[in-house]
């Protein structure tokens, strides 16, 4: 069951998929339509899942699930991953590669490999004050409060 993302409780489980490039203005309506269709029919063991999504910066897909109503099962999570893989293939981008870092450089969102980010930290091209996207947040409260944080306040701090 698709619901507006902002109506999900703070305890909603969150999955964040950073795109290797921004979605274009031409792609956004189709991506949103696909997300609407997927989340409208998403179930776990026959039970509707109350879920919503956010697409901040046209660069991330954030799926939230209200687990108070029904919890995701292994099969339903697999189904969501296959859906994300279909988006990757259709739009020729990466959404599932966890070995990359997204961060702000001025007004831009930059997407680099973990190794490249480490090199940038050594060269002081990024610092502990660089705003990074902590895609490891687990629930909506953490997403709202700790997703965009200075690198020094996230797992990225090990590079400084």
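^ structure tokens above, recovered residues below v
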């Amino acid at each position: 069951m698709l619901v507006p993302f902002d109506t999900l409780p703070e305890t909603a489980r969150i999955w964040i998929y950073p795109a290797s490039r921004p979605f274009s203005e031409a792609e956004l309506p189709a991506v949103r339509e696909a997300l609407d269709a997927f989340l409208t029919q998403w179930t776990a063991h026959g039970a509707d899942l109350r879920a919503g999504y956010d697409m901040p910066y046209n660069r991330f897909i954030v799926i939230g699930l209200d687990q108070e109503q029904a919890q995701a099962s292994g099969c339903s999570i697999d189904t969501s991953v296959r859906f994300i893989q279909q988006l990757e293939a259709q739009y020729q981008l990466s959404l599932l590669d966890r070995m990359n870092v997204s961060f702000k450089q001025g007004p831009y969102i930059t997407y680099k490999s973990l190794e490249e980010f480490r090199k940038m930290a050594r060269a002081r091209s990024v610092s502990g004050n660089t705003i990074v996207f902590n895609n490891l947040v687990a629930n909506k409260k953490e997403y709202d409060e700790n997703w965009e944080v200075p690198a020094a306040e996230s797992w990225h701090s090990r590079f400084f």
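Residues 100 and 114 are 5 Å apart (CA to CA).
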